[in-house]
Design brief:
Largest sheet: 6 strands, mixed
Order of helices and strands: HHEEEEEEEEE
Helix content: 10-25%
CATH architecture: Sandwich
Radius of gyration: 23 Å
Structural class: alpha+beta
Distance between the termini: 44 Å
Number of strands: 9
């Protein structure tokens, strides 16, 4: 009985094609875009206007390693029962997910300030969007230069 042999050429072609696709996907950045960041922000505010100001972002202007970047967000608010910050959202334009963090505050927080560390995929703009107790929104932004990127998702 003769043994059927598959042509090795088709198997090689398949392996080369699969390897090529894997290589492209592995090196393709999984960054969000400015449009995706805007869409994520629009989901938070709906159609409400966003006033620039009242929000201060403290980030180092130059970061050697994007794996751990210190971030402080301060909002000019008296933090009283009638006038306080309800939510602080942090967005980035080039991370895999544009909404990096959400903090919920109330008047008992005493001050409208949060500090954390975030990962940054590349040089980009970081935006903090705050919802006030009266339903209005305000924002602030800061640019950061990252020399060694983080947030590179592997397959």
């Amino acid at each position: 009985m003769k043994e059927r042999r598959r042509p090795a050429n088709s198997r090689r072609r398949f392996l080369l094609a699969a390897g090529g696709v894997a290589a492209v996907l592995a090196f393709e950045p999984a960054d969000a875009t400015v449009a995706e960041m805007s869409d994520a922000m629009r989901k938070v505010v709906g159609g409400a206007p966003v006033a620039k100001g009242r929000v201060t972002l403290e980030l180092p202007p130059l970061v050697d390693n994007g794996n751990t970047v210190a971030l402080t967000v301060r909002v000019d608010s008296p933090m009283t029962a009638r006038d306080h910050v309800k939510t602080i959202h942090v967005f980035t334009e080039k991370n895999p997910q544009p909404n990096v963090a959400t903090f919920r505050l109330g008047p008992r927080a005493g001050r409208a300030s949060v500090a954390t560390r975030i990962r940054l995929a590349d040089t980009q703009t970081v935006v903090a969007l705050c919802e006030m107790s009266d339903g209005t929104f305000c924002s602030g932004s800061a640019d950061v230069v990252v020399t060694l990127a983080a947030c590179l998702e592997e397959l």
